[in-house]
Amino acid sequence: MRSEDTENDGRGRGPRRGGHRGPRGDFGRRGGWQAADLPPADDAADWFTGRLPDAWFSNVDVTVDREEIMVIGTLKDESPGDGAAAEGRISRFRADTKEQRIAIAEEAQARYGRRVSWGARLGETTALFTHVAAPVMTRLRQPERQVLDTLVDAGVARSRSDALAWSVRLVGQHADDWLGQLREAMSEVDKLRQDGPGL
User: Fold this and answer.
1) Contacts of 121 by beta carbon, 8 Å cutoff, 6+ apart
2) Tell me, what's the pLDDT at 28?
3) SS3 assignment, position 68
4) Hey, what long-range contacts does 30-37 have (CB within 8 A, 24 or more apart)?
5) How far apart are CA 170 and CA 159, in angstroms?
């Protein structure tokens, strides 16, 4: 998977005077959205399926977390060709649809309070146009730090930060079923909370 992180597809332009961003930044809220009051995004996949032009994709994968909505679409193309041909086709799609994708991203950001990242897939080739690299602050005890340092010393990762990201990916690959059950349980808790009496 190739990543291209130079394009601004409606992902924010930094703070304006007074620390308040416009509609492309923190969506009109001083201080930005907080995790506790983020709008729900359970219907994001359906929203994008309905909002995206029919001519763009044969299939769309939408992944949501607290910071980002990642939209990766499979291009409609009968003969993707080899890697270079597919990369060229994806690059053309990226350039041709940029303005429309920016507009759609701004609508989604206003609705869901999350930045939108884009990618496209053709055959075996996938390219990410933009994506959010969100910092995660944490404190680790010495045994945990030693695990990260071992990965760095072995050349698996370049830094503790890279080693932590590698570890999270590894856990995700081997715990998909368990994490899926956990997310379903969390969704049920959220639903019960919303159906409960207000304060």
Assistant:
1) 72, 73, 74, 75, 90, 127
2) 42
3) strand
4) 33/113, 33/114, 35/66
5) 16
Q: What percent of the chain has pLDDT over 90?
A: 35
Residues 6+ apart with CB under 8 A from 51: 104, 107, 108
Single-letter residue type at 190: D
Phi, psi (deg, nearest 5) at residue 180: -65, -45
pLDDT (average), residues 112-141: 84
Strands 115-122 vs 68-75: parallel, antiparallel or unpaired: parallel
Q: Interhelix angle for 176-195 vs 160-174, to 10°?
A: 90
pLDDT in tens, 169-182: 888 877 777 777 77
pTM of the model: 0.61
